[in-house]
Amino acid sequence: KRTKAVLWLEHGQPPPGGRAVPGPGQESGPLFSDGVGMYHLLFVYGTLKQGFDNHNLIDGSYFVGTGRTVRRFAMYKEIVPYVTKAEAISSIHGELFRVHSSVLDMLDLFEGNPVCNCREQVEVVLDQDNSTVSAWMYFNDTPQGDLVPSGVYTR
Fold this sequence. Notes:
Shape: globular
Largest sheet: 7 strands, antiparallel
Strand content: 35-45%
Helix content: 10-25%
Distance between the termini: 33 Å
């Protein structure tokens, strides 16, 4: 099953009013242009989700839907949640957004990429139709705090 939104995400078809732009190799991630700027897919699992403290940083970005990572990782929560690749505990559940390149650059500073957290590509299964897309996600590979075995951050 594939929705129109997922088709343009997967197959380089642009969002309404936009056009697909091939990125320089796989490490560029899904990249789209609306004639004014470039956009990327970002998977968020913590305080950047809707209704949480830092969502204002991506407010105005296009909400694609909810989903979970294909691979299993480990989520920990100290003051804020973070995900590590060091352990395979569960899929991480979160929200997928299409964000402007300038928002992604700002989030890299906010997340401390690449010193504190590293932004990497992951495969995400969308809840709406079980299709899979590639998106950016932030990782921190120093486990500390309490394990969140469900992979769902709730505060």
